[in-house]
């Protein structure tokens, strides 16, 4: 396995006890869990991230549509303000 030393540096490592793992729960905090519990935590975290990603994509799509509509209205108003030559 690869062990993180910094955000961009990983070194090879081996597990002493394959039944216990340390799980990074954020902000530098680690929790010791069994391998099954660690796997379950990671699966829940992945599902949460996928759900948040899907919601973010949907929101971004709505915002883009609103921005496109606002741009079209602005273009129409600018055409009305420019005198015809």
UniProtKB/TrEMBL annotation:
Similarity comment:
Belongs to the prefoldin subunit alpha family.
Biological process according to GO:
protein folding; response to cold; RNA polymerase I assembly; RNA polymerase II core complex assembly; RNA polymerase III assembly
Question: What's the protein here called?
Answer: Prefoldin subunit 5
Name one molecular function that GO assigns to this entry. unfolded protein binding
One GO cellular-component annotation of the UniProt record comes to: prefoldin complex
């Amino acid at each position: 396995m690869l062990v993180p030393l910094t955000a961009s540096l990983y070194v090879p490592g081996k597990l002493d006890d394959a039944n216990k793992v340390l799980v990074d729960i954020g902000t530098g905090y680690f929790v010791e869990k069994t391998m099954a519990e660690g796997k379950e935590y990671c699966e829940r975290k992945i599902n949460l991230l996928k759900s948040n990603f899907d919601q973010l994509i949907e929101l971004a799509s709505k915002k883009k549509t609103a921005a496109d509509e606002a741009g079209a209205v602005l273009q129409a108003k600018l055409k009305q303000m420019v005198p015809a030559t």
